[in-house]
Structures are given as structure tokens and as C-alpha cells.
């Protein structure tokens, strides 16, 4: 019984921030919910700054709260390890997104955009300052609501 109570209490405190499975779903949700899209280009199994960005920023409670309120999330991942290879269709979709939004192939590269694809702000890399990065994203989200 104690375990059940602990699991319920932990589950209630968790944020339900979800990274969308594909970009089309992210665009649709952003339009329906009147939110921005946060598109993150990542090398999840080889790019150390990408891994730190996800751990220090995207997994933080502060970011999850912000995302739940103002963002739809999509990660265009480019893993190198064979075991982490994406399905071909998703890989092609991510490559098309990179051609359009990240033509120089920077990692990590993060974009906040409208549901129709208009870029509001982008970040090249990760400065290792999670509080500053989250604050910059908040500023973008709040500026669009005025």
C-alpha cells in the first residue's frame, strides 16, 4: 500500500510534457492549442552538448511547466549508432526539417516557431546555463502573447 501511495504521489507531481512523434503532429497541435513549436535538432547518442541540453533544460521541472503552457515539442534527432537508427520515414522527415531550418547542420540547434513555420527565435548550441536558456524561451513565449 505504501508503494502505491508513493507511486501516485510521484506520478501526480510529474509533468506530462510530451515530445511529439512527428513534426506534422506537432504543427497540428500547435495550431489547435495556440502554442509555439520548439524544434530541437539533436544528436542524441553522440553530441555531448545535445545530451546536456536535454538533461539540464528539457528535463527540468521549470522547462516542463513552460512547455505545458506555451509549447509543442519536437526533436529532430540524428543518432549515429546503428542501434538508435530511426525509421527511414522519420529520418527523411528530419532531414527535410534540417534542410529548411538548420541548413548548416549545427548541433544542438533549437528553434521556436509558429504553427505555420515562421521562425521566432533560434539558438545555436548550448551555453551550459540552463536558467538563462529557459528564461530566453520564456521571453519569446510571453512576447507572443501580448
TrEMBL record:
<keyword id="KW-0413">Isomerase</keyword>
<feature type="domain" description="Thioredoxin">
    <location>
        <begin position="3"/>
        <end position="142"/>
    </location>
</feature>
<dbReference type="GO" id="GO:0016853">
    <property type="term" value="F:isomerase activity"/>
</dbReference>
<dbReference type="Pfam" id="PF13899">
    <property type="entry name" value="Thioredoxin_7"/>
</dbReference>
<protein>
    <submittedName>
        <fullName>Thiol-disulfide isomerase</fullName>
    </submittedName>
</protein>
<dbReference type="InterPro" id="IPR013766">
    <property type="entry name" value="Thioredoxin_domain"/>
</dbReference>
<dbReference type="InterPro" id="IPR036249">
    <property type="entry name" value="Thioredoxin-like_sf"/>
</dbReference>
